Inverse folding.
C-alpha cells in the first residue's frame, strides 16, 4: 500500500503541517507531522479539504523508463568491468595505480594525480578493460544490494607474504554470491622468501582451486610495487572476458549505473557513470536516481571532453541538478517533463522513507501491519 506522511501531504496541498494536524484533530485523529497515513485515509482528508486527488503509483512513473531490449538488435562486444577486492594492505590500491599507469601518456596534463572512480586500461591485445576504482567491498556490496550488478570479473588480491585473511574470504564469498568469476592475483612476489604455493593451498580450504593446482580459477603472480607481470594479469582478464562473451547494444536507449558522485565547487554536481547499454551523448536528458538534468559535458578518464560514451565506458558527467548516490541507475528519457516526473517521485519516496525511519516505525514494519 502507498503511504504518505502528514508533513508530505500538507506540503502537497500547500498548507502548513500544523494546520493539517489541526484538521485531523477535528476529525478525532491525534497525529504528529511524521506519522504516516495510508492512501485511502489521505484521499478522504484531501477531499474533505476541497482538493481533488490524483493518485500516482510507482508503476505509473517507473514502468517503461528503461525500454526492453530489442532482441533483433546487433550486439557488439564490450570491455569487461573489473573490481579489485582483497584484504587490507594486500595491495589493491597499488595494483590499481600500477595498472592505470600502464595507460597514462607520459607528461599528460591532469592525468594520474586526480582521483577518478573508474578508468580504462588497454590490454596487450589492444582491447580495453574497465576498472572500478572504488573502495572495493563497500562499493561492490552496496551496489549489489541495490541490484546493480555492474562487475563482470572480480580480481582477488592476496599478498604472498600474508596469505588468505578474513577479508580475502569475504571477497571470495561476495564474488561467489554474485556469480561473478574471479581471478586470483598473488601480489608482493618481489618480497624475499615468499611462497605463492602456500596461498594456493590455503585457497583450497575456501573451495577456490586455481589453475596451477589443476582447478578452473585463473591465478597470476604479480608485484604491484615492482610492476611485475601486470601484462599477465591483463591477459588473464581478457581471456576471462572472452569466455563471458560480453556484448551490448550500442544503439539503444542508454542506461547504466552511478559509480560515484560529488558536489564540486567549480563544476557543480559531478557524477562518474558506467554506461551499461546504449551510448550516452552530450545534450541527453537523464534521470539519475532522484536527480535529473541535461548532460552538459562528458569527461573521460584522461580528463578529455568527449561527445559520447558507449557500453562499459566510465564517464564523468556534468549538468545534474543534484548529487545522486553510488549504485543509482541512470536512464535517458525523451523530455524534461518525464525526467522531472521520475526524479520528483523518487525524491518524494526517499523523503517518505527517511521520515518513516525517524518516526520509529519503519515503512516495512508499517507495511507488514497493513
Ligand atoms: P590496500 O590496502 O589493499 O589498498 O593496499 P595498498 O596498495 O595500500 O598497499 C599496502 C602496502 O603494501 C603499501 O605499503 C604498499 O607499498 C605495499 N605493497 C603493495 N604492493 C606491493 C608489492 O607488490 N610488493 C611489495 N613489496 N609491497 C607492496
Ligand atoms: Mg587501498
Amino acid at each position: 500500500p502507498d503511504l504518505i506522511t502528514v508533513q508530505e501531504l500538507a506540503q502537497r496541498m500547500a498548507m502548513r503541517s500544523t494546520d493539517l494536524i489541526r484538521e485531523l484533530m477535528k476529525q478525532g485523529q491525534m497525529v504528529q507531522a511524521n506519522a504516516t497515513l495510508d492512501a485511502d485515509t489521505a484521499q478522504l482528508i484531501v477531499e474533505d479539504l476541497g482538493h481533488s486527488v490524483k493518485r500516482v503509483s510507482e508503476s505509473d512513473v517507473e514502468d517503461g523508463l528503461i525500454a526492453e531490449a530489442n532482441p533483433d538488435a546487433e550486439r557488439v562486444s564490450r570491455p569487461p568491468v573489473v573490481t579489485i577486492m582483497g584484504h587490507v594492505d594486500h595491495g589493491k590500491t597499488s595494483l590499481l595505480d600500477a595498472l592505470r599507469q600502464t595507460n597514462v601518456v607520459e607528461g599528460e596534463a591532469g592525468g594520474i594525480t586526480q582521483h577518478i572512480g573508474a578508468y580504462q586500461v588497454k590490454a596487450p591485445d589492444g582491447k580495453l578493460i574497465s576498472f572500478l576504482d572504488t573502495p572495493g567491498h563497500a562499493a561492490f556490496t552496496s551496489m549489489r544490494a541495490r541490484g546493480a550488478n555492474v562487475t563482470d570479473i572480480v580480481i582477488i588480491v592476496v599478498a604472498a607474504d600474508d596469505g588468505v585473511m578474513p577479508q580475502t574470504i569475504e571477497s571470495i564469498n561476495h564474488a561467489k554470491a554474485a556469480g561473478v568469476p574471479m581471478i586470483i592475483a598473488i601480489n608482493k612476489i618481489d618480497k624475499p622468501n615468499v611462497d605463492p604455493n602456500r596461498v594456493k593451498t590455503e585457497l583450497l580450504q575456501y573451495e577456490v582451486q586455481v589453475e596451477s593446482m589443476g582447478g578452473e580459477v585463473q591465478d597470476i603472480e604479480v608485484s604491484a610495487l615492482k610492476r611485475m607481470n601486470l601484462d599477465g594479469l591483463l591477459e588473464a582478464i581478457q581471456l576471462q572476458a572472452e569466455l563471458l562473451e560480453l556484448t551490448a547494444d550500442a544503439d539503444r536507449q542508454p542506461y547504466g549505473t552511478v559509480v560515484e558522485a560529488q558536489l564540486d565547487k567549480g563544476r557543480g554536481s559531478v557524477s562518474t557513470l558506467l554506461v551499461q547499454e546504449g551510448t550516452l551523448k552530450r545534450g541527453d536528458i537523464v534521470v539519475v536516481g532522484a536527480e535529473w538534468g541535461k548532460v552538459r559535458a562528458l569527461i573521460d578518464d584522461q580528463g578529455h571532453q568527449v561527445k559520447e560514451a558507449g557500453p562499459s565506458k566510465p564517464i564523468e558527467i556534468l549538468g545534474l541538478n543534484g548529487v545522486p548516490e553510488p549504485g543509482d541507475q541512470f536512464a535517458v528519457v525523451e523530455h524534461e517533463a518525464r525526467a522531472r516526473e521520475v526524479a520528483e517521485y523518487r525524491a518524494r519516496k526517499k523523503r517518505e522513507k527517511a521520515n518513516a525511519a525517524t518516526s520509529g516505525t519503519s515503512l516495512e514494519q508499517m507495511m507488514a501491519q497493513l
